[in-house]
Amino acid sequence: MRRNWAARLRHGTIDGLRAVTLENERLRVTVLPGKGGDVVELLHKPTDTDFVWLAPQGLRDPRDHLQGAADDVAQFIDHYEGGWQEIFPSGGAPSEYRGARLAQHGEVSGLPWDCEVVADSPEEVAVRLSVRTRRLPYRMEKVFRLRSGTAALEIEGRATNESGLRLHAMWGQHIVYGPPFLRPGARIRLPAGVTVIPHESAINPPERRVRAGGPWTWPTVPTHESGAGETDLSVVPGPGAPSDIVYLTGFGDEGWYEISGDIAMRVEWDATVLPYLWMWQELGASTCYPWWGRAYTVGLEPFAGMPTDGLAAAVANGTALVLDPHETKVLRVRAEVLA
After folding, report:
1. Under a CB-based contact definition with an 8 Å cutoff, are residues 244 and 202 in contact?
2. pLDDT digits over 231-251, tens only?
3. Which of 163, 254, 284, 313 could form a disulfide with 239 if both were Cys (CB 3.0 to 4.6 A apart)?
4. Which residues, 6+ apart, have CB-to-CB distance to 159 below 8 Å?
């Protein structure tokens, strides 16, 4: 029965893409089964705060893209609206794995997912999304669940190797934050003892925020400029600060972080499955493709595998996820607004 109170579901379209909205008294979460299962709205209703970053180019339907040069990076970037993507089976740059060419951030974020309702009551609503990859023999599922009276989105993901072979994968939650929630001086909290591993090279040469090398101890790390001292990664810089990406690890079994401005978001996940947290900062310093100086965003992205060089690099350094024949890995993620 259709409801306008307690936990409820809405089905519709946004810019021609299938959408489903999970809503209760405190949150409104909009998901696009028609485009990767992307989360394009995570709104805290009492404060009218949306936590997802919306990219300047807006939402674009991949099916409408008929022109443009072949490019394994643009396949993701041309249709990147911000928000929260499921990344699988490769993270970051294009890569080749056992003869399969994988584009930027793998396959599933650009595919349409099947969607079915698994709970629809005043107490809770939930939908299950599912998809099969095209180039590797994997099946992905994820259940989004919202319970009445809570400010927490719960997600249970499953990655299944449908072959009789032992395979590798990178699995990530590409969660990014932006204005109006994100602002200079916003704070990031992590557990004690987390280690910072800088990316090997600058992602926007020649500048970067963190000196190469390490590993360093969170949150105070050496700056890139020789002799310039240290920078506190727990504080979000103002516009124009150097672009950078670092990899955080040492979470134990249960990973968590909090990012706070006027209110806060806390994300918890199973760090035995995703032992790394990618911290990506694009704060307006990149003035060429694809950002043109228009991005002010921080990504805090739980991941299996590093660096952002694709699956082959993660296999080579031993950080890729391993799935035995017909094995299923289960991942639970919880995102809660703290107000």
Report:
1. yes
2. 999 999 999 999 999 999 999
3. 284
4. 88, 138, 139, 140, 169, 171, 321, 323, 328, 329, 331
Measured between alpha carbons, how far is 170 from 106 in angstroms, rounded to an integer?
9
> Coil, strand, or helix at residue 74?
helix
On whether the CB atoms of residues 218 and 190 are closer than 8 A, the answer is: yes
Question: Hey, what are 12's tokens?
Answer: 């519709």
The pLDDT value recorded for residue 67 is 65
For 213-242, what is the mean pLDDT? 92
- Residues 281-303 pLDDT 10s: 999 999 999 999 999 999 999 99
Give how far Cα 94 sits from Cα of 65, 97, 338, Å.
20, 10, 37
CA angle centred on 95, ends 252 and 300, rounded to 5°: 35
DSSP annotation of 325 reads T
Give the 3-state secondary structure of residue 33.
coil
Tokens of 265: 């978001």
What is the distance of C-alpha 25 from the center of its chain? 25
Burial of 64 (0-12, 13-18, 19+ CB in 10 A): exposed
Q: Looking at per-residue confidence, does 70 or 136 come out higher?
A: 136
Say if CB 249 and CB 277 are below 8 A apart.
yes
CA distance 31 to 28: 10
Residues 210/244, Cβ–Cβ less than 8 Å: yes
**Alpha-carbon Rg for the chain in angstroms:** 19
Q: Is the pLDDT of residue 194 over 70?
A: yes
The DSSP line for 203-247 is: SBTTB-SB-SS--EESSEEEBSSTT--EEETTB---TTPPPEEEE
Cα 239 to Cα 70, 150, 262, 285, distances in angstroms: 32, 34, 18, 8
Q: How many residues does the chain have?
A: 339
Confidence of residue 2 (pLDDT cuts 50, 70, 90): confident
Helix (H, G, I), strand (E, B), or coil: what is residue 312?
helix
Rounded CA-CA distance 51/102 in Å is 30
Residues pairing with 178 in the sheet? none
